[in-house]
Write a structure and sequence with these properties.
This protein is 39% helix and 20% strand. By secondary structure, it is an alpha/beta fold. It folds into two domains: 148 residues, 2-Layer Sandwich (Nucleotidyltransferase, domain 5), CATH 3.30.420; 172 residues, Nucleotidyltransferase, domain 5. Bound molecules: 5'-O-[(R)-(carboxyoxy)(hydroxy)phosphoryl]adenosine (KG4) and zinc ion (ZN).
Length: 335
């Protein structure tokens, strides 16, 4: 079965053709980063308009690269995301499915992110999934393509958002994660000792928080400088990055201990972070997987791949399928 996938939940307009949930025939991604850069963040209305301009060409290119192969169904991200952006991909998907007389299925973007590594060779279930991007911070026990138990999430900013806000404040560019990562390479992670959130108690022991760290780095950095250490930007980035990543690793260790599952899959844009990758790979007894960067960040191959399994068990969306901006964050069971 060949599925045509469409993704437009944020600032990437993407179309892909994937066979049997495993083989990518084509995957085209049109990113809007350059358009949002002047604003240091995604401007929702601009994103919707850019999707309208791009989606037809992206679709044509994906079909062309797949050699004009026919498709059996259309899959589209319909939640969560920017509603204006989602509606562009959703309406386009309905048009394509209707015209071709093929079934349509709506896909949850987060479940699709957690599925992405399966497109580069099967990763056995269960595993612990870490999804870290500009919009999501999630620790979950992944039992199958749609059996996900969310064990932790952020109670405020996403981790990538914290990287972006720190980078924006210090004028490092947008998106800021890579700039921070690069500067941190020559910095001393111990020069600044930033506090980590302590949400360990209570009913959500694996939740994280990034607004306190962000505020400390932006407004109170001097009070966290070790006596005698140099207050350089490199040291600041290294200290911030270490605090942000160490918190994730600490929570992951807790999840691995509680679940007894030592297979860990990291995805999302922040999974590109070199310090995070080093820290995860250094954990003894863990089997760590990272999808390649194109599959970590937003793409339509993960949408088409996930949808194959949903279609196989009979999922079909009606023509009234709508977009949803959010899905409840604190539910233990996802979605
Ligand atoms: O998955 P993604 O492309 O888009 C969504 O947010 O859905 O993730 C983008 C995020 C941005 O916040 C960016 O700053 C961050 O990933 N990022 C990084 C790195 N590369 C990208 N964060 C830390 N270190 C990096 N090397
Ligand atoms: Zn995403």
């Amino acid at each position: 079965m060949t599925v045509l996938g469409i993704e437009s939940s944020c600032d990437e307009c993407a179309v892909a053709l994937v066979r049997d949930g495993a083989t990518i025939l084509s995957s085209v991604i049109n990113t809007q980063i350059e358009h949002h850069r002047p604003y240091n963040g995604v401007v929702p209305e601009l994103a919707s308009r850019l999707h309208v301009e791009a989606v037809t060409d992206v679709y044509r290119e994906a079909r062309r690269l797949a050699g004009g192969v026919d498709f059996d169904a259309v899959a589209v991200t319909n939640r969560p995301g920017l509603v204006g952006s989602l509606l562009v991909g959703l309406s386009f998907a309905k048009g394509v499915a209707f015209a071709a007389g093929k079934p349509l299925v709506g896909v949850d973007h987060i479940l699709a992110h957690l599925y992405a590594p399966q497109l580069e060779g099967p990763v056995a279930y269960p595993h612990v999934g870490l999804l870290v991007s500009g919009g999501h911070t999630l620790l979950a026990l992944v039992r199958s393509f749609d059996d996900i138990e969310v064990l932790g999430t952020t109670i405020d900013d996403a981790v990538g958002e914290a990287f972006d806000k720190v980078a924006k404040f210090y004028g490092l560019g947008y998106p800021g994660g890579k700039a921070v990562d690069d500067l941190a390479k020559t910095g001393d992670p111990d020069a600044y000792r930033f506090p980590q959130s302590r949400l360990d108690k209570g009913s959500h022991p694996f939740d994280v928080s990034y607004s306190g760290l962000k505020t400390a780095v932006i407004n109170q950095k001097d009070s966290f400088l070790k006596p005698g250490a140099e207050p350089t930007l490199e040291n600041l980035c290294a200290g911030f990055q270490a605090a942000a990543v160490d918190l994730l690793v600490r929570k992951l260790k807790g999840v691995v201990k509680e679940t007894g599952v030592h297979r860990v899959v990291a995805g999302g844009g922040v999974a590109a972070n070199s310090y995070l990758r080093r820290s995860l790979s250094a954990q003894k007894g863990w089997e760590v997987h990272y999808p390649s960067l194109e599959l970590c960040t937003d793409n339509a191959a993960m949408i088409a791949g996930w949808a194959y399994h949903a279609l196989t068990r009979g999922d079909r969306a009606g023509w009234d399928l709508n977009a949803q901006s959010r899905v409840p964050r604190f539910k233990r069971k996802y979605p």
